[in-house]
Design goal:
By secondary structure, the chain is of the alpha+beta class. It has one domain: Beta Barrel (Sortase, Chain: A), CATH 2.40.260.10. Helices cover about 35% and strands about 25% of the residues. It contains three helices and ten strands. Strands 3-4-5-6-9-10-8-7 form an eight-stranded mixed β-barrel. A hairpin with a 2-residue loop joins strand 7 and strand 8. The chain is elongated, with a radius of gyration of 37 Å. The N terminus is likely disordered.
Length: about 270
């Protein structure tokens, strides 16, 4: 009888231990499941966030490269028409021309006024207001510029979104001194996208109210944004085009130098 009781007691103890182990296992499995589901949600959230961020970046790039270019090209049609109206309305005057002494080099002839012989004169136009479309630039060797691109006064971000921009502190195209025009290379119409393909001797035409001024490329250089010497007067009548370099970066500047060879003021300025 005692043995039977003892065996029953042992059996009850084993069953109790087994139930406890089963209960502990049952309690542990939901906890592990919850942790797994939480990790899955985190990974899924990171994945969707990365996809969303990638789509946003792609959309931004597409907007900068294609959307801004499309609207800039459409706006250029209107700006070119505005420039034509500006040509007819702007005030033009004729003034005596004397080359600055700093532009002469030893051996150059000096124009000494001769009694009874009129001094050379140049045509000048009133300075445009910031944002005005006052000129059209054409480069026959660059397809997108063969038909012309409007030039507006000013080189701020806002004005350059409208077209190529003329630096207000420099002379207007066709005038004595160094006229500087800047333009985007990859966005907002990218008028200066292929500026790096120009070579010495290529022609650049700039039409203003005075007529068409023809420049010949004399050189191309890569400089830093701090190299302000590129906008300095080089004597005679010159043109400087600037844009960002390399493409899709503003780390450097691509600069094209050109000199006036024909135009309404070429004879007086060049002394020919």
């Amino acid at each position: 009888m005692q043995t039977e009781s003892t065996g029953t007691l042992v059996t009850m103890i084993d069953e109790t231990k087994g139930s406890a182990q089963f209960a502990n296992t049952a309690q542990g499995r939901p906890a592990e499941g919850r942790r797994g589901r939480k990790l899955t949600r985190v990974v899924r959230g990171v994945g969707w966030t990365s996809i969303g961020l990638g789509l946003f970046i792609l959309g931004f790039v597409a907007q900068q490269l294609f959307v801004t270019t499309y609207f800039a090209q459409q706006a250029n049609v209107g700006l070119t028409a505005e420039a034509q109206v500006y040509f007819a309305d702007v005030e033009i005057s004729e003034v005596p021309y004397e080359p600055p002494l700093g532009s002469l080099v030893p051996g150059d002839p000096v124009n000494i006024p001769t009694p009874g012989v009129p001094s050379p004169t140049v045509l000048v136009e009133a300075k445009p207001e910031i944002g005005d479309a006052f000129a059209i630039i054409r480069i026959p060797s660059i397809e997108r510029l063969q038909e012309g691109w409007a030039v507006v006064e000013g080189v701020s971000r806002r004005t350059l979104r409208a077209g190529a921009g003329h630096m207000p502190s420099t002379p207007l195209p066709g005038q004595p001194g160094n006229s500087v025009i800047s333009g985007h290379r990859t966005t907002y119409g990218a008028p200066f996208h292929e500026l790096d393909t120009l070579v010495e001797g290529d022609i650049i035409e700039v039409e203003t109210a005075l007529g068409i001024h023809i420049y010949s490329v004399t050189g191309i250089e890569i400089v830093t944004p701090r190299d302000l010497w590129v906008i300095e007067d080089r004597g005679g009548a010159t043109l400087t085009l600037t844009t960002c370099h390399p493409k899709f970066s503003s780390r450097q500047r691509l600069v094209v130098f050109a000199e006036l060879i024909e135009g309404p003021n070429a004879e007086a300025i060049l002394g020919v």
